[in-house]
Specification:
The structure is a homotetramer.
Chain A: H1 3-14, H2 28-31, E1 39-44, E2 49-53, E3 59-60, H3 65-77, H4 98-102, H5 113-127, H6 130-142, H7 151-159, H8 162-173, H9 181-192, E4 195-196, H10 198-204, H11 206-209, H12 223-236, H13 242-248, E5 253-255, E6 260-265, E7 269-274, H14 285-298
Antiparallel strand pairs in A: 1-2, 1-7, 3-4, 5-6, 6-7
Helix pairs in contact in A: 1-14, 3-5, 3-12, 5-8, 5-9, 6-9, 6-10, 7-9, 8-9
C-alpha cells in the first residue's frame, strides 16, 4: 500500500470539510485553536509512519487519552476493572449523569468521562501516579521524549471542571473511587492536557494494530486483550456517535474534543487524524470524513 | 380547642407506630438516635405552646431547615429566587440528579437538596453568612437562645456529602451558584445540623400560621408570601410523598430525616412532631400518623 | 359575599389576558373554538350559582372529567383504586410514558391520562358503562338534563388517539387494565367529549365544597373522601403546573385542554372558569389569572 | 479450515452451558421449547454448510428477522430509512419507551422493537406485503422452500403484544408509521414467527459474508451497504449487550429470544447457533459461549 498516495488523496478529498463544525469552546485554551488545521498520519505495524498536512503539529489529545488509560490498566490489572465500569455504549451524551444514577454509580463504559475517572483512579492506585505513567508510556511508544502536559490546558480544564467534579463526587458517593476526588480529577485533567501530533499518536497507538506488542517488541496486552480494547473503541469510542462511526468508517476509533481521532486497522496500521472543527456530537468533522474516505479507498473496514 | 387533650389522644393513638421504620443511617450521628422517641407540640398564633412526650428534647432538624431558608430568602429578595429554582413537585427521590440534568441545572423546587443548595447560596449572598442568619432567626422565633449547630453532625454530613457535592458542582457547571461550592456546602450542612425540640420548631414556624408575622409582631413575609411558602410546603415538603401527605394529612408540611415534621394550620397554629423511625420515603412513620390523627380529631385539614 | 361584584371585578381584571395563549390544536374540533371566550361561575354550597361573561356557553370538559371519574370510583369502591394508580404529582408532562415504564405500569396519579384510563377501566367494571354513568351524574348534579357527549369531539379524539392507545396498551402489558383496550379508550374519549358550561360544571362540582354531599342532599363521598379528592386535585390537578397553581391560586383545581378549570373552596363554593387560550403546560391563561385574582380579592386560598 | 472439527470442539466446550439460563417465557409457544437443545452451523461464502448438534431442527427466528428486514429495505430504498430510524446503540433494554419519547418517536436503531416496526412499515409500503417478502427471500437464500410462518407463534405474539402495540401507537402519534398500526403489528409478528434451523439461517445470511451477493450470484446490497448492515449488527445486534458481545465475540451478530444468533465473518462465512436458554439480556447463554469459543479457536474476530 502506498500510504502517501492514499493520504494525499484523502487530504484533497476532505479539503472542503476543513474548517467546518465548531472548535471546542468550553475552555479558552482549546477555543483559540485555528479551525483550518488538518493533519493525518498512518503508522504501520513495522513502525513506519507517513503523514500529510499538519501531521507533525501538536494538539491537545483530550479524550484520546482514555484509550491509553484503559490499555494501561488492563495491562496491569487484567479484567478486574470491569467490576467498576461497564463496557456498553452509553446511548446518551458523553457526560450524562442520568445513566450513572440509574446504574448506581457504575459508568457505562471507560470512554465516557465518568468511566475514564474510574480508570484514572485505578491506574493511580496501581502506579502511584496515573498521569506520569501515561506520559511515560506515550513518550516511549511515540519515540518522542519531548511530549509534555500543557499546564495551561490542565488548569483551564480544572477551572471549568464542575461537571467532572460532579461525576467524581457522585461516584465517590457510591464508593466507586479509591483515591480522593481532587487527586482523581487532577490526574484526569493532566492526562487530557497532553500535547501530541498525529505522528506521535499514530505511533503510540500501534500496539493496538500489533495485537498488543509495544514498539520495542515487548508485550503490553495479550492478543485477546488488544482485540478487546479495539472492541470497546468500536462500540464506545466516539461519544454518542459510535453507531454512526461504525457505519461510516467501520474501524475501532477514539476521538477527542481537541479534534483528534485515532483509528485501528488490526494487523495493519494505526491512523491518527486531526482537524479542530467538531460536529454536534464532539467528533472532528474533517477527521471523520477523512477516515471514511480512507476506508473507502483501501477497502479496510473491519466489516 | 383543648390542645393538651388532643395531643394526649394523638400520642396514645400512635403509640403502636413508635419505633417502626428505620432511623436514618447515612451518618453515624443520626444512626445513634433512639428509635422509640416521640414528641409533639402545638404553638398557636398567640404564641402559646403545648406538648406531649419528648417534645422538649432536641433533635437534628435536617431538611426542616429548608422551609426556614426559603422564607428568609423570600423575605429579603422577593420572588427573584424563582428564576433559579422551580416550585413544582419533583416526582423523583429527593436527591435525584436526573431531573436536574433534564432541566439544565434548575432544581425542581427549594425543598429537594439541589434546590436548598441554591437557596442557601442566595441567602449567603444576601447576608454574608447563611447559617448564622438562620440560627439567629430560629433563636429569636423560638425564644430559645441556646439553640446551636451540632458540629459533629455537620462534620459527619460533610464526610458523607459526596452526593450533595455532586449536586452543587453540577449546578455550578450551569452557572447556578454564585458562591464557591465548598462555601455553599458548608453552610448547607451547618443549617441541617441545628438541634431543636418540637417546642422550638413549633414556635419558630408560627409565622407561617400568622400569615407572615414574627413572634415580636414584626412582619417577615407579606400575607401573600406566607401563603405561598405554605403552598410550596404542601406540594413539595415531604420528598417524594407530597401527594400522599396531602391526601392523608391535608396540611402544608416539611419533614427531615432526623424524624421531625412541621405542619401549618393557617390562621390557627403550627405543629411539630418528632419520632426518628422513617418510612421508605424518608418521613417519620409515627410523625405522619400523628399528624393524620390530629387532623382527623380536629377536622383541621386545609381541604 | 357578593359573588356578582367579585366576578365582575375578576372579569374586568383579566380582560387583557383573554385571547392569550394557544387554543388546543391536536384535534380539529377543539382548534376551531374562539380564543376570545371567557366565562366564570361560582356555585355555593346552597346551590346558588352566579356567573359572568360566557358562563352559560358549553365547551368541551376534556380532562376536567377526570375529577368526576375519580369521585365516582371512590364512591363505589373506596380506597382500592390506589392499588392500581398512585397519588403523587407526576413531575413530568401529562402524557409521559417514562414514569409509567419506570414504575411498572402504575400511573403516578389519576389525573394524568394513564391514570384516568385506569380509573375509567375501573368505573366501567363497576358500572358496566363508564361514560354513561358519568354523564348521568353530571346531568343530575348540574340540573341540566340536556348535557350530552359531542360525537364529533369523541371521534376526533379517537382519530388522534395514538398516544392514549400507546398508554393503554402499555398498561395492559403490565396487567393494569381489566377491560379490552378499545373499550377503555372509547369510554375515556366519550367522557372527555362531554359539553358543559361554567354554570353546569360549578354546580356539578359542588359536592366537593359540600364535603361529599350531592345536590339532592344524599352522600356521594364521606367527608374524609371528599377532602382527599380535593388533596389530589391540589397536588396533581393541573398537569405539570400543580406547584405553580398551588402557589398562585392556592385551591384544589382540575383543568382541561378545552380551556376550563374547576376549583374548590372547601365549605364555601365551587368555581368554574373557561377561556380557551392555553399556556405551555395546557392550562387556560385567563382562567388561571381569574382564579388567582379571585383568591386575592376574597382571601380564600386554602393556605 | 476444517469447520467440522472446529464445530465439534465448540460443541464439546460449551456442553456444560447448555440448559443454563431461562427459556423465553412471555409467550407459551416459546416457553415450551426444550432448554437442552444446541445446534450450530457454518455456511461459507461458497455456500458449503457444516453443522453440529441440533443444527437442522427448526426454531423461532424471532428478532433475527430484524437483520433481514433491514437488508431488504436498504436493498430497495437505500439510505432513506435513516430519516425514520437511528443507528446508535440504545443503551437501554430492547423494548424501552423512554428513549423513544426522548427522541420524538425516532427509534434509536432498527434492531430494537420500535425500530423494527418502522422497518417493517417501510418494507410493507415498498412491497405491499412485508412478511411474505421476507419469507420468500429466506426460502430463496436458504434453498429451503418449506420455510413457513408458525401461525400459533404469531397469534401468541399478538395476544401478548400490548408492549409492541404501545410502541407502534406511540410512533404513529409522531407520524412515523405510514400503514395502520394493526397491519404493521401483524406483519411484524409474522416475520418473528418464521421457523428456521441453524442450517437455514446460516445459508440465508451468507450474503452478509459475501459483501452483498445473494446465493444465486445476483447482488442484493452494494459492498458498502453490506458492510454497513454488519456495522449495525455489531453495535446494535444483541439488545443491551452489544458492547459485551463485541468484547467477547468480536463479530457482527443478531440474536433472537428464540435462542438463535447469527454472526458474520466478512469474506469468510456466516454462523448460526441456537440454544434456547437466555441470559438476563435476552441472548442465548450457550450460543454466546459457542461464538466466543469459535472466534478463540479460529482467531477470526474482526478486531
Amino acid at each position: 500500500m502506498d500510504y502517501q498516495a492514499v493520504l494525499d488523496e484523502v487530504a484533497a478529498h476532505v479539503e472542503p470539510q476543513i474548517g467546518r463544525g465548531q472548535v471546542a469552546q468550553y475552555i479558552p485554551a482549546l477555543a483559540e485553536v485555528d479551525a483550518h488545521r488538518f493533519g493525518m498520519a498512518v503508522a504501520d505495524v513495522d513502525g513506519r509512519v507517513t503523514g500529510v498536512g499538519d501531521w507533525e503539529m501538536p494538539f491537545s489529545v483530550q479524550s484520546i487519552s482514555k484509550a491509553f488509560g484503559l490499555a494501561l490498566v488492563l495491562a496491569q490489572d487484567g479484567e478486574k476493572i470491569w467490576r467498576r465500569v461497564g463496557r456498553e455504549p452509553s446511548g446518551n451524551p458523553f457526560n450524562s449523569l442520568v445513566q450513572l444514577e440509574y446504574e448506581n454509580g457504575i459508568p457505562r463504559n471507560p470512554f465516557i468521562n465518568a468511566g475514564a475517572l474510574v480508570v484514572t483512579d485505578r491506574l493511580h492506585s496501581l502506579t502511584g501516579d496515573a498521569s506520569t505513567t501515561m506520559l511515560d508510556f506515550l513518550r516511549a511508544e511515540s519515540g518522542n521524549s519531548e511530549l509534555a502536559f500543557d499546564p495551561a490546558v490542565a488548569a483551564s480544564e480544572s477551572d471549568h471542571g464542575d461537571r467532572n467534579a460532579a461525576l467524581a463526587h457522585f461516584m465517590a458517593g457510591y464508593g466507586n473511587l479509591d483515591n480522593p476526588v481532587p487527586t482523581v480529577l487532577e490526574h484526569y485533567f493532566w492526562q487530557c492536557s497532553i500535547e501530541m501530533s498525529c505522528r506521535d499518536l499514530a505511533l503510540a497507538g500501534t500496539f493496538l494494530a500489533r495485537h498488543g506488542l509495544r514498539a520495542d517488541g515487548s508485550r503490553l496486552l495479550s492478543r485477546r486483550e488488544a482485540k478487546r480494547v479495539n472492541a470497546v473503541m468500536l462500540t464506545c469510542g466516539t461519544y454518542d456517535a459510535a453507531g454512526d462511526f461504525a457505519y461510516r468508517v467501520g474501524l475501532p476509533g477514539k476521538s477527542g474534543v481537541g479534534g483528534g481521532i485515532i483509528a485501528v486497522i488490526p494487523g495493519r496500521c494505526t491512523l491518527c487524524v486531526w482537524s479542530p472543527g467538531l460536529d454536534a456530537r464532539g467528533n472532528s468533522v474533517a477527521g471523520v470524513a477523512a477516515l471514511d474516505h480512507f476506508t473507502t479507498l483501501t477497502g479496510w473496514s473491519v466489516f
